[in-house]
Amino acid sequence: MSDGVRNLHEALSRIGEHWQPHRLTSVNDYDVKVVKLLGEFVWHEHPDTDELFLVLRGELTIQLRDGDVTLGEGDVYVVPRGIEHCPKADEEVEAVLFEPKGTVNTGTAGGERTAQLRELD
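^ that's the sequence the OP posted. Answer follows.
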């Protein structure tokens, strides 16, 4: 990871796989991650942290047990800590995530969708 100006669109153009977050930069103890999403993720929660989603392109549905939240381009939503959720994208979504360093993408659920945070080249 290099210091300096980073371009979201250029960073996202280098990501080929869905549900594989890449660190764009870090701010204090938080990672700013870029990710492409398609299909349905897994139901999971993060008991110790909130999770911020910023949609850059596409439409993202964050399924919650008490109702869905739909995000369009430019929308931001924070899933509160401890709330079970399942992101879903019917068409490809490009998004930014803001989470504390070390946050696992599948939270407490684990499983095959658990991804190691990748660095952008």
